[in-house]
Amino acid sequence: MEHKLRNKSYKNFYLLAIGVACYLAYQYPLTFDATHNKNNSLSTGNVALLSKLDKPLTIELFTSDRNISEQVQTIIAQFQEKSKNIIFNVNHTPLNPQEKLRLGLHGNHNLLLTYGERQKNIDLNILKWNQQTFSNLLQQILQDKDPWIVFLSGHGEQDPFNKENRNLSILTTELKSKGIKIASLNIGETGIIPDNTQTLVIADSRTAFLPHETTQIVNYLNRGGNLLWLVNPNSVHGLEKLTAVLGIKWLNGTILDHQAHTMGTPNPAISVITKYPNHPVTKKLDMLTVFPWSTPFEYPKALELGWKVSAFLNTNASTSIEDEQNHQGPFTIGAAFTKGNQRVLVVGNGYFLSNGTIHNYGNAMLANNIFNWLNETDLLLNTSYKPAIDFAFSHNTWTKITIQYLFPYGMSFIYLLIAWQTKRSRRPKQPLPF
After folding, report:
1. Which CATH fold would you assign to the domain 44-142?
2. Which residues have CB under 8 Å from 10's CB, separation 6+?
């Protein structure tokens, strides 16, 4: 009897302990990010982005779907943990048709953001809703101006809207998602570069510029305009005046990276960069970047012309150029030129931003940083959402054998062994002969 009472007391104690644990877990939830690259935590760039919120940001969700509201809340809660200025409200009654028409909305799930006098209204696509999507919305509503990035055309440049591998439609789609306006400009047709151009882009021109066009580009630079100049091997094409204004000297030839080729790149002309100087564009870049068919340059006269120059992309010491002088690396393929508030980036490569290459390794993050720096939004660098590398599974021969053979056959053997042992234990025991 005493033994039964003791067992009953233990059971009551265990039930009470489980109840207390459940109550504490409900009242004081504890979460942690177990993903390999902290995919469910805010990046340092997003934390810096939130520091720009100097007044309340009100977010209102209109949807009748409670599952969608929970998914939206999960992402926004990550940002609310780092900023008390984010206010999130859910309305389970959809907007009426007249209100949607006034706000320029069409879907049944709508997100309205209000920050001071600025407003941003979107139709929510829950399939694309993640940390980066909300970060892009924050960047758009924090923009105090409408920057135009203008890509020059008419000389075989990489097209900002074309979807072929050489062109730049993936890049410009990402830029537009951040609220940046994109335009293509043929100076031969317009005759001028508009004054509202925040950054001018010359992306791998393949035919020569006319003297009048070159003059317009140089005048734009002399007025203090920002510039991104992407040059592939032997593609200066009539821009010698621009080269002279920046104090640049181009080295003939294509860089060969034999070290990267031995590590697995398909061609020695693909340069891989793993280490970066301490510059805002690459300061927090912790992923390797790849540059197919790069051309190096020097800037011997830039200082005399009043430019402050910082290299931000240098190849490794084992790179070379196969020419008469047999130049040996490291080589500079990316440098930032500043003069007061003016910002210019020159990169001896255009393919790293192309549709066929931009998603390789850290190229997309580098592209994001380049345009944020040129648009003078330094605090918005490195907010890109890192891919969930936990979903990628790489295996060797032993893991393949284990998964395909040892695990299924081993589990089957263990099951049969347990069944045999269970059946054997249920057999009636034979009485002893004495």
Report:
1. Glutaredoxin (3.40.30)
2. none
Distance (Å, rounded) from C-alpha 239 to C-alpha 152?
13
Q: Are strands 226-230 and 197-203 parallel, antiparallel or unpaired?
A: parallel
Token representation of residue 76: 């926004």
Q: According to the model, what pLDDT value does residue 392 have?
A: 46
Q: Are 155 and 231 in contact (CB under 8 A)?
A: no
Coil, helix or strand at residue 271: strand
Is the pLDDT at 238 greater than 70? The verdict is: yes
Query: One fold for both 44-142 and 148-380?
Result: no
At 189-227, the pLDDT tens digits run: 988 999 889 999 999 999 999 999 999 999 999 999 999
| Residue 391 confidence class, pLDDT cut points 50, 70, 90 | very low
Whether residue 330 is preceded by a cis peptide bond, meaning omega within 30 degrees of 0, is yes
How many Å separate Cα 220 from the centre of its chain? 30
Q: Identify the three-state secondary structure at position 228.
A: strand
- Long-range Cβ contacts of 368-371 (<8 Å, 24+ apart): 368/174, 369/280, 369/281, 369/282, 369/285, 370/228, 370/281, 370/345, 371/149, 371/175, 371/180, 371/199, 371/228
Identify the burial level of 342 via C-beta atoms within 10 angstroms of its C-beta, where 0-12 means exposed, 13-18 middle and 19 or more buried.
middle
Which residue, among 422, 434, 287, has the nearest Cα to 362 in the 3D structure?
287
Query: In this structure, are residues 201 and 177 in contact, taking their beta carbons and an 8 Å threshold?
Result: no
Q: Return d(Cα 290, Cα 360) in angstroms, integer.
A: 7
**Residue (of 361, 340, 247, 226) closest to 298 by Cα position:** 247
Strands (E), 124-253: 148-152, 181-185, 197-203, 226-230, 249-250
| 6-10, 46-50, 106-110, 239-243: least confident range | 6-10
Beta-strand pair 332-339/342-347: antiparallel
Burial of 32 (0-12, 13-18, 19+ CB in 10 A): exposed
Q: What is the 8-class DSSP label of residue 118?
A: E
Helices of type H across 268-406: 363-374, 397-401
Domain 148-380 has CATH 3.40.50.880: yes
Cα-to-chain-centroid distance, residue 238: 34
Residue with tokens 């009636």: 428
Q: How far apart are CA 351 and CA 157, in angstroms?
A: 11
Q: Where are the domains of the chain?
A: 44-142, 148-380
